């Protein structure tokens, strides 16, 4: 999260530079000191080491963050929140199982289900479906080596340009794994248990790794039982010192019962009950997905070429207000060149790439007969195609000052055919998203940065096909567009570090939603002018060192995310706050650790004001404070035992909500709140050999 190694800086768009300028560049004249990591695996062409990954993230003149798996491996790491809760600017609100809401800087602020506005990558390759939608079941924290967070236009070098940006989950390989064999077992409250195993081997030029996890839980609430099976593996082949190819495979099987949403009063007084509609319809979500991908890397005298290809098959059986029965295929290819060029005496770091990815989804619906198919109500095919080209470059105008400029051109096509009526609909979204930035590095481990980026979010099929009279109906929505300005600083010193960013996004046609019936997917609309602004802050400080043993430390950590998202002179809502997210989210930790022996980390999560549930700002969730405790002991080298205790005071609160237009409207269904999980305790062990 806070950069511990060196950083290089910013960029200037070099797609306009003549090809004759491309030449091998010498090392930069100013670099931060290398971080020495004892026992760190060296990595490979397709899978860089952690040191290289961190350097690549934190050399950007932007609010990019890097998280190693060490920060979450000795806890009940099951959801994205478990991985990202100590990362400023990232809000993950849990509901049940792995169903949650993910938002960066207001992306998907009103999306009450699944994923929108953030691009998820696994090993740099997209996980989202072709229309931009997706869910989180393919991300297994136990199969992740590191996480890189790129808010907004900071993800341009990966091809992403949405308001939320991108998050890249990097899986281990046999050349970067912590150990050749890893075993893990854990269990705890509400009938929860999980087994996981990972094995890897290096066989000459070949390397192979497989990771499998099974989790089963009865769930905290009624009708929330879940079962998750996740397999991630990869095989690499080193053709030569300059050529390597790696194949990835992922197999995922999710079976989750849905307890539904409640009124605020129910969430605070009887939080463990299920919504009657969820019980009557035996609502659930069953997903079987398979993902296959390849990255081939070729190192040249003038730079490096990465060629990514992928295919994702997803089958969904989802009885809610109706039975949603879908089967889809997404495929894509993404070439990318990165390298260094010289412009006179100055060094440039240039990235040029493109992506084509597309998909087709058979979307059927049936009357829900207690979770089984009844009469058919919809039969359609959804097709999405995306054409993208991007470039980003860093120019060091001074040894301590770098400029960045980049741009992305895109064309997104969405088609829908209603096979019951023969009607066809289509929409094309074109865009051009530039970026300008600056990085100043006054000292070796201090950075100050600022940038301006443009983003564009294209509505997905959940937005374009809205339920009217229990039938999917095509709605001609506009793309969401935004200009974002951010300034920030990050650094480290002997006893701590900091990460501070202020941002302001001016949006047009922001994609927002409101719920009429919690069992029916919410309706999406384009707002007028809106503003998303806020603060992302994280800091840590060693209060003491060598207190009871050599090398021990007592560390205070603080994370603060401030969201101020508002309408601007809206005809209906004036300057009201946009519903969906709380304005302040704070997390404080106090950790005592003796390296390679044990650690103890109490944590306090505080939301001083609940989120508004309606755009009229008449109904909001409650404020809350939760206390948790994490602890771990190294029994013997390679064997650890850990404890993760959550919500120790059994606080009742709403962890997430769906948004309404006006809670005072006659007949408004106020059952839009999801109660947070009560007191829970989990115990586990890890064995590495």
TrEMBL record:
Alphabetical list of Pfam families matching this protein: Plug, TonB_dep_Rec_b-barrel
Domain TonB-dependent receptor plug: residue ranges: 58-166
Record-linked InterPro entries: Beta-barrel_TonB (IPR000531), Beta-barrel_TonB_sf (IPR036942), Plug_dom (IPR012910), Plug_dom_sf (IPR037066), TonB-dep_rcpt-like (IPR039426)
One GO term (biological process): siderophore transmembrane transport
Domain of life: Bacteria
Location relative to the cell: Cell outer membrane
Keyword tRNA-binding: no
Signal peptide: 1-23
Any one GO molecular function term: siderophore uptake transmembrane transporter activity
Keywords per UniProt: Cell outer membrane, Membrane, Receptor, Signal, TonB box, Transmembrane, Transmembrane beta strand, Transport
The keyword Protein biosynthesis is annotated on this UniProt entry: no
Record domain TonB-dependent receptor-like beta-barrel: where: 189-648
Main location: membrane
Membrane topology value: Multi-pass membrane protein
GO cellular component: cell outer membrane
Similarity comment text for this entry: Belongs to the TonB-dependent receptor family.
Protein name, UniProt field: TonB-dependent receptor
Organism, scientific name: Roseicella aquatilis
């Amino acid at each position: 999260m806070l950069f511990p190694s060196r950083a290089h800086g910013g960029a200037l768009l070099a797609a306009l530079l003549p090809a004759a300028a491309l030449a091998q560049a010498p090392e930069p004249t100013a670099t931060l000191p290398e971080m020495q990591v004892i026992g760190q695996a060296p990595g490979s062409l397709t899978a860089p080491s952690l040191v290289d990954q961190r350097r690549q993230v934190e050399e950007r003149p932007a609010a990019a963050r890097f998280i190693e798996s060490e920060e979450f491996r000795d806890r009940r790491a099951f959801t994205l929140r478990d991985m990202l809760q100590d990362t400023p600017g990232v809000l993950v609100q849990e509901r049940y199982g792995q169903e949650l809401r993910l938002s960066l800087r207001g992306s998907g602020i009103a999306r009450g289900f699944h994923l929108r506005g953030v691009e998820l990558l696994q090993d740099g390759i997209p996980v989202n479906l072709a229309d931009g939608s997706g869910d989180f079941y393919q991300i297994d924290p136990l199969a992740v080596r590191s996480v890189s967070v790129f808010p907004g236009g900071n993800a341009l070098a990966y091809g992403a340009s949405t308001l939320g940006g991108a998050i890249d989950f990097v899986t281990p390989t046999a050349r970067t794994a912590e150990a050749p064999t890893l075993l893990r077992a854990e269990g705890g409250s509400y009938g929860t248990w999980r087994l996981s195993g990972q094995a890897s081997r290096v066989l000459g030029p070949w390397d192979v790794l497989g990771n499998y996890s099974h989790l089963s839980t009865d769930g905290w609430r009624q009708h929330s039982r879940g079962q998750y099976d996740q397999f991630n593996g990869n095989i690499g082949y080193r053709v030569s010192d300059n050529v390597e190819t790696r194949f990835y495979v992922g197999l995922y099987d999710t079976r989750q019962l849905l307890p539904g949403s409640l009124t605020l009063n129910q969430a605070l007084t009887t939080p463990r009950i299920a919504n009657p509609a969820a019980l009557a319809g035996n609502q659930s979500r069953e997903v079987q997905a398979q993902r296959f991908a390849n990255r081939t890397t070729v190192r040249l005298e003038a730079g490096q070429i990465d060629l990514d290809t992928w295919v994702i098959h997803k089958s969904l059986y989802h009885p809610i207000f109706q039975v949603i029965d879908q089967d889809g295929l997404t495929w894509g290819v993404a070439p990318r060149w990165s390298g260094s060029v010289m412009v006179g005496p100055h060094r440039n770091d240039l990235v040029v790439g493109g992506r084509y990815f597309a998909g087709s989804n058979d979307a059927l619906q049936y009357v829900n007969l207690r979770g089984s198919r009844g009469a058919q109500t919809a039969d359609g095919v959804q097709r999405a195609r995306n054409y993208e080209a991007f470039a980003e470059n860093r120019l060091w105008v001074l040894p301590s000052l770098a400029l960045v400029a980049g741009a992305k051109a895109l064309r997104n096509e969405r088609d829908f055919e209603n096979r019951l009526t023969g009607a066809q609909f289509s929409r094309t979204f074109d865009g051009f998203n530039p970026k300008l930035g600056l990085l100043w590095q006054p000292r070796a481990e201090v950075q100050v940065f600022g940038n301006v980026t443009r983003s564009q979010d294209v509505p997905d099929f959940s937005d374009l096909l809205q339920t009217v009279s229990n039938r999917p109906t095509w709605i001609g929505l506009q793309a969401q567009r935004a200009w974002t300005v951010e300034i920030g600083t990050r650094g480290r010193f002997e006893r701590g570090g900091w990460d501070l960013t202020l941002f302001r996004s001016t949006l047009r046609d922001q994609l927002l939603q409101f719920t009429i019936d919690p069992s029916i997917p919410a309706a999406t609309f384009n707002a007028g002018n809106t503003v998303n602004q806020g603060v992302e802050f994280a800091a840590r400080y060693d209060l003491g060192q060598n207190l009871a043993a050599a090398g021990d430390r007592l560390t205070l950590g603080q994370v603060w995310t401030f969201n101020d998202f508002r309408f601007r002179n809206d005809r209906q809502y004036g300057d009201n706050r946009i519903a969906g997210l709380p304005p302040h989210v704070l997390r404080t930790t106090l950790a005592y650790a003796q390296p390679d022996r044990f650690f103890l980390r109490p944590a306090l999560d505080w939301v001083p004001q609940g989120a508004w549930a309606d755009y009229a700002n008449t109904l909001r969730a409650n404020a809350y404070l939760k206390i948790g405790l994490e602890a771990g002991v190294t029994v013997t080298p390679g064997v650890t035992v850990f404890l993760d205790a959550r919500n120790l005071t059994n606080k009742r609160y709403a962890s997430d909500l769906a948004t309404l237009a006006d809670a005072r409207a006659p007949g408004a269904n106020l059952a839009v709140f999801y109660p947070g999980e009560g007191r829970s305790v989990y115990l586990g062990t890890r064995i590495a050999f």
